[in-house]
Amino acid sequence: MLLSLQIENYAIIKSLSIDFDKGFTVVTGETGAGKSILVGALGLILGQRAESAIFHDKSKKCFVEAQFDIKNIDLASFFKKYNLDYQENTFIRRETLPNGKSRAFVNDSPVTLQILKELTEKLIDIHSQHHYLLLQQHPFRLKVIDDFLGDNRFLGEYKKEYSEFKDIEDKYHSLQKKLNSERQEVSYWEYVINELENANLQPNEQEELENKIEFLSNATLIKTNLHEATAIMSENEVNVLEMLQKVARNCQQISSYNANIQNLESRLSSVITELKDISYELANLEDAVEVNPELIDRLRERLDIIFTFQQKHRLSSVQELLQLQEKMKEKVNRFLEEEEQLQEFEKELVSAKERVAKSAKLLSEQRKKVLPSLEKAILDKLLLLGMQKTTFNILLNETASFGELGIDEAVFLFSANPGSPAVEIEKVASGGEISRVMLAIKSVISESAFLPTVVFDEIDTGISGDTASRVGNLMRQIGTQRQLIVITHLPQIAAKGELHYYVYKEVEEKHTFTSIKKIEDKERIYEIAKMMSGKNVSAAALEAAQELIESRNVINFF
Predict the structure, then answer these.
(1) Distance (Å, whole) CA 388 – CA 384
(2) Are residues 116 and 217 in the same domain?
(3) H or E stretch including 222?
(4) How far is CA 195 from CA 7, 188, 202, in A?
(5) Which residue segment(s) compose the domain that 111 sits in?
(6) Does residue 425 sit within a domain?
(7) Cβ neighbours of residue 23 closer than 8 Å, sequence gap 6 or more
(8) Of 66, 214, 285, 310, which has the fewest beta carbons less than 10 angstroms from its beta carbon?
(9) pTM above the 0.70 mark?
(10) pLDDT 10s digits, 391-440
(11) Do 319 and 460 have their domain in common?
(12) 391 phi and psi, to 5 degrees?
């Protein structure tokens, strides 16, 4: 139950606070005074979108807070699920900053708008004068049936199966789209892999080829210098080794006379040994050097192949080409793995489709079972509202595909006149008839699907006289079962309320603000009389208004 509503800086509301009570509360006021602004502010609590135009003072934040008594509603598990502080008197607050950003809180804990909506849809239902459009909407018509059914296990199970089905279907189509877009690329990837594999590129091959080509291109020069070096070392008549060996023999002959000479002779021996090795290697290198123009051509051809690949793929090294080869292999392997995965998704999709079809059929069967009872309940309410000759039927047609609410499409057929065929309600019903049908539906649903608070915002459009009195009686009846808040312009309805709030405008420092006050006794009689006769309230209007108020406890439809 809604206990209180506090609003700051919203539209033409500067600041106001309202306390509510159980039962039937009416809200009246002049046109444009701001009655529906209260509903708009309450809509923020329900998670509706906040617009920048809501600010009365654009330099300050907009603040709306509602207090709910939730002790008779089983919400402990909800609060536990979202780690919220459970309180029997729960505060829900919505703040909208001048920059357009908004924040929501439940008992001072920040929550997302999704959580806010999930909570408040269990607390309050708002029906405005434009909600007749809901009758044209497929989800609303199904919701009426499901709310009347009451047992949400079937819809819950279907939604679970449908969610799993859609999840697999989305994954399947997403992967299928990805693979279709990659299918042509795979041929290119495989071509690149084969081309590079056939080339048999090796790490560091480019550097080795470049070094070999440079060496072979200078083979004559290298061979000449190596030959000369070998000759100087050991082959000329006068060569380095023979001269050093002679020096070593000279030192040997006198080494016994001096320790230093003996040491030098030993060192010379080591040097001669090392130089012999060097001379041997120089000779081997000379022999190994080959002047081979044909080999140079073959090496250059190999290097040209590497350069061609680098230019083709805009790379600068063999290592990068090898990395490209591995990357292409990974892509091809991943593609093949995803093709297998797609086949698995296809199998899962078939299985999920069977499950969701079974669940949808079961839900549809349950809905069809309650249609006769729902039709009768609505017709009974319409009878109370003075629509004795009305025909109202509900058809359930099977759709070609699954939707969030099943495979059913509900059609509301209506006729207000005997002998006239019943057709889609939105095509034939007048504004007053639509208002009464919606009220009948809301009345029936409020009895079967427990909602602690229901708000009607001027849904009495297009009705008057005895019909208005009947509507007031039905609202009074609803108010005995739950909290009902009604914004109305009809005195017949206003008089039925247990509590009466009056919305009015006042001017403060050349600025217009909306205010609200609770009215009783003479003030209430005067307000209802004014609703009946206009600003010039007559004694007869006052007397009639008093009679209306005094008879509010009498609920007589016939």
Answers:
(1) 8
(2) no
(3) helix 219-230
(4) 74, 10, 14
(5) 1-123+451-464+481-520
(6) no
(7) 479, 480, 483, 484, 498, 499
(8) 214
(9) no
(10) 999 999 999 889 999 999 999 998 888 878 888 887 877 777 887 888 88
(11) no
(12) -110, 130
